[in-house]
Amino acid sequence: MKTILVIEDNREVRENIAEILTLAQYRVVQAADGKQGVELARTVVPNLILCDIMMPELDGYGVLHIISKDPTTATIPFIFLTAKANVTDFRSGMDLGADDYLTKPFDDIALLNAVELRLRKGEQTRLQQHVDGLAILLGSVREPTSEQPSTADTYPSVHYRKKQVLYAEGNFPSAIYFIRKGQVKRFQTYGSGNQYITALAGPGDFVGYLALLQQKAHNESAEMLDDAELVAVPKSDFFNLIDHNPDVANYFIRLLADDVVEREKRLIKLAYQSVRQRVAEALLMVQHKLYPLDATLTNGRLPAMSLSRETWSDLVGASTETVIRTLSDLRTEGLIDLSGGQITLLNMEKLARLRR
């Protein structure tokens, strides 16, 4: 089930759109203004955004500008809803990165056709980025030839077991890794063996590049959260690509920048948020990173998350007992469901408000 965020200050128009989309088997999240829309876009990370242009405080152009600068939301397909139809307005929106326009008033068919088209193109783009992540690294944007084998032939996948260590803190790097399947946690060890999880990674992500670029020993470890399939690109090949391919170099500069920003945000939240806020933050982060909303839903529910109690504790930065007690409180409040060691989010909007 795809999730669509509708940002529209006119309640009647917003609810009519939501009703049509719900009947078409989409999950709909509604925002009554631009500021709320930006917050929900970051929290829910929908598959598509429908946004009115003329709104008080923050208009549609401002919404698009903000979400296009955020790595979490930058690739979400975006459709403007507008009563205006002149060339200047269209050009302004397209220059900012809008994917399409729907001019009011529009009928049900026009709405559903536009949504279906943008979701299809967005899915194609996402899958292409996901599958071709390794190809971007290797510069293999051309079709394989007899002289140029495919990347899969050059660097075959290696299977790893759950809890198997990919690399350890203090070891010197020999390769960069691309995740084809599975989940990986990056963490640092401190004190009496306690862990601080620095990042989570899933299919389509790279791990191990920080130490390579710094040409230093790893300052963190990486371990499989479940059975996984990874591709290792040797250090020498990686540097050859960085040195001779500006696109690859720019790609990893962006990854490094995003990594630094995300770490700073997490450290600030660990320092100033309550345990309850940090638990909500961890739940939303894991859902977005490892269990995306476009996964197949069961009975209309989000995919259940399955991590060990120790992993949740390391993510939150609190004792296992404290985290379990907080999760139980959230279950009592109807925000999550706990069953057999799995967690299902029942109300992401309330969890997002809780973490503030």
From TrEMBL:
The keyword DNA-binding belongs to this UniProt entry's keyword annotation: yes
Keyword terms of this UniProt record: DNA-binding, Phosphoprotein, Transcription, Transcription regulation, Two-component regulatory system
Question: Which ranges carry the Cyclic nucleotide-binding domain?
Answer: 152-259
HTH crp-type domain boundaries: 273-349
The protein's matches in CDD domains, at most eight in alphabetical order, are given as:
CAP_ED, REC_OmpR
Boundaries of each Response regulatory domain copy? 3-119
The 4-aspartylphosphate modification is found at: D52
**Is Phosphoprotein one of the keywords UniProt gives this record?**
yes
Q: Which Pfam families match?
A: cNMP_binding (PF00027), HTH_Crp_2 (PF13545), Response_reg (PF00072)
Q: What is this protein called?
A: Response regulator
